[in-house]
């Protein structure tokens, strides 16, 4: 008998069923790099509260974020497909499927990922949700801090955007 497979349900899910968030929540003048970035929040629909997991797709020419580092939150990425260029204070390196990168909280090492290839790149992004986190963007006049569970953006001298 050929039975139709059932869709997974919690504690499992099919990521393709999650509506992606397109772009970034940056102030308008900083949105171009991430305008077509797609993020699917995988941890939220499963009820995860201590850390977040996103399935991120970068179209050719797009980036993960403006170069940044977190004061209190660790970040980890695992490349699934495509090639992405990791940019840090030390320079650039190409990451291929199966490669990982980690960014410890408080390490003054701005980082981001750029897809310089001709095909989509996908990776898992995992980070903790430590309260009171602040984000430093060393290359632009932008800072962020967690306010009531959401990031709010400011200029480096503290004026809100």
Write a brief structural summary:
With 161 residues, the chain is mainly β. The protein is built from no helices and 13 strands. It has a single domain, classed as Jelly Rolls.
Strand content bin? 35-45%
Q: Give me the count of strands.
A: 13
The level of helicity is under 10%
Output the number of helix runs. Answer: 0
Mean pLDDT: 94
CATH top level assignment: Mainly Beta
Number of domains: 1
Q: Indicate the radius of gyration in whole angstroms.
A: 17 Å
Strand/helix succession: EEEEEEEEEEEEE
| CATH topology (level 3) name | Jelly Rolls
SSE-based structural type: mainly beta
Your description of this structure?
With 161 residues, the protein is an all-beta fold. The chain has a single domain (40-154), classed as Jelly Rolls (Sandwich). Helices cover 0% and strands 39% of the residues. It has no helices and 13 strands. The chain has strands spanning 21-22, 38-41, 51-58, 69-70, 75-81, 84-88, 91-95, 100-103, 112-114, 121-128, 134-137, 142-147, 150-154. A six-stranded antiparallel β-sheet has the order 1-2-3-10-5-8, with no helix packed on it. Strands 4-11-12-13 form a four-stranded antiparallel β-sheet, with no helix packed on it. The protein has a three-stranded antiparallel β-sheet with strand order 7-6-9, with no helix packed on it. It is globular, with a radius of gyration of 17 Å. It starts with 20 loop residues before the first strand and ends in a 7-residue tail after the last strand.
């Amino acid at each position: 008998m050929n039975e139709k497979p059932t869709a997974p349900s919690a504690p499992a899910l099919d990521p393709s069923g999650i509506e992606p968030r397109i772009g970034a929540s940056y102030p308008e003048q900083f949105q171009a790099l991430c305008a077509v970035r797609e993020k699917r929040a995988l941890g939220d629909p499963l009820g995860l509260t201590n850390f977040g997991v996103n399935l991120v797709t970068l179209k050719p020419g797009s980036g993960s974020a403006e170069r940044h580092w977190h004061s209190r939150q660790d970040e980890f990425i695992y490349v699934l497909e495509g090639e992405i260029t990791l940019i840090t204070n030390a320079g650039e390196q190409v990451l291929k499927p199966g490669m990982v990168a980690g960014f410890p909280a408080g390490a003054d090492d701005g980082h981001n990922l750029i897809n310089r290839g001709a095909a989509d790149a996908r990776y898992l992004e995992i980070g903790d949700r430590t309260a009171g986190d602040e984000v430093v963007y060393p290359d632009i006049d932008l800072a962020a801090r967690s306010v009531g569970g959401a990031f709010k953006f400011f200029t480096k001298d503290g004026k809100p955007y």
